[in-house]
């Protein structure tokens, strides 16, 4: 096991699975973290556990939160419908109702705490600024700002053992992400990206996440590994 440790946010989706494979290929001992935050379905948590096993992480941790207590997002409030698109249609512009207020800020903060406990200096997140759904907490400016905060807010940072927030997918297209993951042996059939997957992890094929994922497989010239309803 490498002495070079990384904490990686693992949602169970295509992007985060690829990030775990990238970190492992770069020689990190990988510690993955998922969140049971009141999302619409638990199938993504089951997918995260499968991905963690397949990619051989050192430890996989699931943290319970109650973001559905605040609501404000179609992913945490059942009264807000998940937008659906016609087949092949691009997601609508602007910040969609699937944005979960402060989600990546909260998730990265908890990953930062675990990283400090583990003595890890690198935290990986699968945000993307090219093929993304309009979320403000996926932008490079957010990642850079969080890294600055992390090194001001922690004992390790103040003592000069600073943290790096790594977002290796930041400037990659979805097709490039798929191609990279395939090359690293990611089994995308184990992942769940859909905003409203059923209890068996089958995707709706109509939400923004499904549209972006399907387009990525098509552009990469790779058979779509997604299981659809």
Q: Can you lay out the helices and strands and say which pair or pack?
A:
Layout lengths: L4 E5 L4 H12 L3 E8 L6 H13 L3 E6 L38 H16 L3 E3 L15 H14 L1 H4 L5 E3 L7 H10 L24 H13 L9
Parallel strand pairs: 1-2, 1-4, 2-3, 4-5
Briefly, what is this?
The protein is α/β, with parallel strands linked by helices.
Structure keywords:
alpha/beta; Rossmann fold; 7 helices; globular; 229 residues; 5-stranded parallel sheet
Walk me through this protein's architecture.
With 229 residues, the protein is an alpha/beta fold. 36% of the residues lie in helices and 11% in strands. It is built from seven helices and five strands, in the order βαβαβαβααβαα. Strands 3-2-1-4-5 form a five-stranded parallel beta sheet, sandwiched between helices. β1 (5-9), α1 and β2 form a beta-alpha-beta unit. The longest helix is centred in the middle third of the chain and has 16 residues, at 103-118. The mean pLDDT is 93. Catalyzes the ATP-dependent conversion of 7-carboxy-7-deazaguanine (CDG) to 7-cyano-7-deazaguanine (preQ(0)). InterPro entries: QueC, Rossmann-like_a/b/a_fold.
CATH topology: Rossmann fold
Main sheet strand line-up:
3-2-1-4-5
Q: Identify low-pLDDT runs.
A: none
How many separate domains?
1
**Which shape, going by the Cα principal axes?**
globular
Largest sheet: 5 strands, parallel
Q: Output the number of helix runs.
A: 7
Named CATH architecture: 3-Layer(aba) Sandwich
Question: How much beta, percentage-wise?
Answer: 5-15%
Relative helix content:
25-40%
Computed over alpha carbons, the radius of gyration is: 17 Å
What oligomeric assembly is this protein in? Answer: single chain
The tally of strands reads 5
The average pLDDT score comes to 93
């Amino acid at each position: 096991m490498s002495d070079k440790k990384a904490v990686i946010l693992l949602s169970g989706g295509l992007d985060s699975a690829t990030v775990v494979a990238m970190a492992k290929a770069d020689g990190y001992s990988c510690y993955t973290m998922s969140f049971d935050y009141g999302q619409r379905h638990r199938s993504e948590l089951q997918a995260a556990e499968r991905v963690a096993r397949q990619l051989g992480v050192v430890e996989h941790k699931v943290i319970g939160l109650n973001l559905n207590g605040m609501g404000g997002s179609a992913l945490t409030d059942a009264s807000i419908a998940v937008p659906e698109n016609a087949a092949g249609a691009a997601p609508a512009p602007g910040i969609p109702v699937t944005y979960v207020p402060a989600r990546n800020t909260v998730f990265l903060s908890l990953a930062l705490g675990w990283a400090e406990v583990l003595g890890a200096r690198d935290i990986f997140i699968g945000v993307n600024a090219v093929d993304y759904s309009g979320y403000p907490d996926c932008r490079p400016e957010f990642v850079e700002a969080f890294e600055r905060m992390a090194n001001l807010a922690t004992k390790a940072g103040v003592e000069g053992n600073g943290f790096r927030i790594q977002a290796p997918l930041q400037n990659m297209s979805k097709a490039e992400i798929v191609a990279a993951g395939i090359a690293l042996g990611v089994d995308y059939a184990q992942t769940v990206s859909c905003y409203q997957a059923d209890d068996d992890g089958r995707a709706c094929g109509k939400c923004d996440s499904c549209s972006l994922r399907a387009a990525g497989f098509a552009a990469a010239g790779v058979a779509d590994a997604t299981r659809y309803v």
